[in-house]
Amino acid sequence: xxRPSWSRVLPGSxxxxxxTALTGCSLIGPAEGATTPDAGQASSATTDARRVSLVQRLGxxxxxxxxxxxxxxxWQCRDCAGDGVESTGSLNPEQTRRLQRMLADPALAQETxxxxxxxxxxxxxxxxxxxxxxxxxxxxxxxxxxxKPPVANRILLLLTQVTPAEDKG
Length: 169
Fold this sequence. Notes:
The chain is 33% helix and 21% strand.
């Protein structure tokens, strides 16, 4: 039997692990042999651009909703409205620039779950996890009194305002 303190951590950790596994394919670069534009055609604005995934889950038993945004601002959302529908779209150029500036912010390294020693503290709350390659994971919950990592929270707000992903309020 699990001690009560572990009963809260394990479902949340399993959810993050599941979300990471579900989005793993979209976080990996193009397959070997895939064609890419010539290096001379790539703009300098996208050479250091990053992709990001937002994985959300409401409570322990809620569906996993996934939003993937590529460096160009194109996004794909799976079950974002909780209705099983997949939708796609694009951020506008200003939103894409804002997102890329925030993703390049060195402060994100101090906001990772590992750096903050993050532990989920609420049951049945909306849990949002940003997955930023190579290896940054930043989780927050919609809980009263939970301190939000500032840069990651701005990224989360941008993504939830311009896509069907759920806003944390």
